[in-house]
Amino acid sequence: MSLSPDFSSSPPPRVLLLALLVLAFFLRAVPALNYGQDWYGDDGFTLVNFDEGGSCRAALRGFDYSPFVGWQTLAIAGALGDSPPEGGVGSAQTAKAFCHSEGHLLIARLYSATTGALTVGALWLLATLLFPERPWVAPTAGALLALSGWHISESMVGTVDAASTFFIYAFICALIWSLRRGGSRWLIAVVLLAPAIFTKYWVFAVASLAAFLPPGFLATLFGGLSRWRIAILLLGYAAVFGLVSNPELPPWAIWLLPAVFYLIVPWPRLSATGRGFFLLAPWLAPLLMQVDVFVAFTAGSLEGRFGTDYGAIGWHKWLRNPINVFTVLVMGLGVPAFLGAVYGAGQLWKREAFDRVCLALLPLPAFALYMAFLAPVTYYRHYLPLLPAACLLAALGVSYLRPSRRGLAVALMVLWQALLAMDLVSDYHLDPRRKLIAWYGERSPTRVLVSYYVNPPPDTGAVHRLFRPVDADSRSQRLSRVDAVILSENWYDTAFANELNGPLVHDLSHLIKTTPESARFYRRAIADEHPMLVKREHFRAPSFMPELLLHYTVYGSFTQFVGDIVVFEVRP
């Protein structure tokens, strides 16, 4: 039996698609139903991810977020007899209590798991529409996404990221299908445009309407320019927006920097229309900076509830954002598939011609540029729409290998992806917080200060109070009245390099969601250098894959809301 079938000619059996959908749903639904269940041996439910249920809370008008998914999960809950209490609409406290309840979170998680699994089918269809001459690109891409530990981890929780990604790719598929086949199929794309946008306010979907521009319009603008020149212009244009949206930039510079864009424009090669377009285009950036909504989604605020806010990143955003794009693709694909995606992108770049249908894909590179240059909020889950496209590129890269190498390449990528998923998703089931049961049993503390996200075991007999760095001040007497302090990495990581701070953390004023005083305390405490605290335990989830080990060394734990737990005893 050959390990290298002829992927370029033999079509995959349709039953393979069904098998991948079933596998993808199983891998997402099972942890969704078990995550946080019976953590402490009491048959209870522990809320771990506090981002869950946000759309539900918005639907009950108790939270500022998109209510699109929340309307649906509330309808499902109501049909099952689990409706919010009377008078709950408009109450933030009631909305939070209901949407974070075990019953509703299970519905929200199964909704997320279902849409996450269906994204595998959408990706299969997209690959078939784009590369009909390479039929095995579809199942390879689908397998990589189905087994992606990062995608599984985002699909097993009750947030909207997996659902948003599904609707984005379903819309793009419907649009390309309508452009290929014509007729009334465009109505399906119109219907799917609304959820593609409103599930998470993903306005980039509108960019796909460029596919309906007159055929000669883009030729008039870009005629005479090579692909490399167009790519440089797009990168330069994104850089202009990145510069003017930097809060550290002096106000007068906002109106001067766009002129720098002119230096990379090849004016002699452009038509009169093209010259006019590129003459005006860079000034859109400073004009949009006068709109509050645009400022919120590009610059962010300097101060917030916990000290600094997302805008405090300043110039460090230029290093943080592209590193995050690289990081999530490596973590979502695994190293072998990531290399395949790079190779696939190179092969795609060499294609002789692209038809206007490819413009339907424009939202994806536009979103990638936004996340690489402008985005102020850079939690990893916000990058999820990039992952299916990366899986598609990895599968395309394999299809360009020699026939004798394709089977081995696919086997390596899929096996590596499965191992990475096993390592990553197991963190949610081996959460370090569960190790606190044994510690409480051994130490029997009576008074404990805990940071956010510690979630101490119930019924320990200890009195728990929320810890604040000011409690460790030498002038405070609060530490002398407790036995221990427990910190969660999900809270103290604001003092270190992570997905929000980036790798440059020497200037404490550029750290996100903290204060310089808090950052100094957390650094001293974790290094066991604080005069009033002694580090006794440092619990962490085990990892064995190189991607997760390297991420832990540089940025800490990759999995959100699952991080190290550090226990300190107070010096007498």
List the keywords:
mainly alpha; disordered N terminus; two-stranded antiparallel sheet
Overview of the structural elements:
The chain is mostly helical. Helix content is 52%, strand content 5%. It has 24 helices and 7 strands. It has helices at residues 14-34, 54-59, 68-79, 92-99, 102-130, 137-146, 149-155, 161-181, 186-198, 215-222, 227-244, 251-254, 272-280, 284-288, 292-298, 317-333, 335-349, 363-373, 386-399, 403-429, 436-443, 489-492, 516-526, 546-555; strands spanning 303-304, 307-308, 447-450, 463-466, 484-488, 533-539, 565-570. The strands form 2 sheets. A 5-stranded mixed beta sheet has the order 4-3-5-7-6. Strands 1-2 form a two-stranded antiparallel ribbon. Helix 1 runs antiparallel to helix 5, helix 5 (102-130) runs parallel beside helix 8 and helix 17 (335-349) crosses helix 19. The longest helix is centred in the N-terminal third of the chain and has 29 residues, at 102-130. It is globular. The N and C termini lie far apart (71 Å).
Structural class call reads mainly alpha
Strand line-up in the sheet with most strands: 4-3-5-7-6
By DSSP, the count of extended strands is: 7
Q: What is the average of the pLDDT values?
A: 92
Low-confidence stretches at least 5 residues in length (pLDDT < 50)? Answer: 1-6
Please report the distance between the alpha carbons of the first and last residues. 71 Å
Number of helices: 24
Biggest sheet record: 5 strands, mixed
Helical coverage, percent range = 40-55%
Whole-angstrom Rg: 25 Å
| Morphology call | globular
Percent of sequence in beta strands: 5-15%
